[in-house]
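Internal ticket - ligand job 251, iron/sulfur cluster:
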Amino acid sequence: MSIFSADAALAALKAPPRGEPTPTPLEQAAFDAGFAAVARLMTRDPIALAGLADAYAQAEALWARTRSTPFFLRNAARAACGKGCSWCCHQRVGAAAVEVLWLAEALRARDDCTTLAARLAVWSPAGPCAFLVEGGCSIYELRPMKCRALWHVDARHCMSAYAGLPAAVPPAAPGVVIEPKQVYEGALKGMALPLNRSGLDCPGVEFLPALKAVIDRPDATARWLKGEAVFPNEVRLDWFPGPTKGGKRRR
Ligand code: SF4
Ligand code: SF4
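stdout (structure tokens):
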């Protein structure tokens, strides 16, 4: 039986900590979509994280609707993102613990699982993402919310961030396209915050080391649902509710 209670989680979330910025309508819509998907799957018996795919589908649909609005088409700067541009895949990526568990299950079910697991096994933090292959993401349809959130109008900015250099473009120049960030990070919070508030261990984690910790453990989700902490402290990040660990650069 799950310790998750959608009602209790929602009640807790209605009282945001003082000083927390009010979400934009777009972020709130994404949050609601993420929350609804998690509430649906966590109140089922047995719980199957496969249902988390709904949260991604909802976020993708919301982003598709947003970028086809006249306002966005008229006002948003064109992003430089595209296949072959991958400075962002050379930086550490944050994810929610529940995303990593879901992704581990989805990867285990893929035909190329052995290849992907082998790439992950030899991955080192000094290198690019284990799933970056010939300039493209080899798990594109499963990539974490944070990967989906990043749109930038000037790849020089991303290159500078990778190299640890001062920004290569003037601060006044258009930079990150904010709407995908609001959508995907809103959905991410909608998925993870209720789980956290309900007592499950769902902190922000560093994506690849966290995935490495659970990819070979098919019982990881079941243990996590029982309240066990299945991720080591070293992979926890300080950008999300939950036990913190400071100092790591991530996007
Ligand atoms: S976020 Fe930056 S590095 Fe990544 S695809 Fe877009 S422009 Fe390229
Ligand atoms: S998962 Fe894909 S998009 Fe995300 S960092 Fe890795 S290669 Fe890039």
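Auto-summary: Residues 178-197 form the longest helix (20 residues). The chain has one domain: 6-235.
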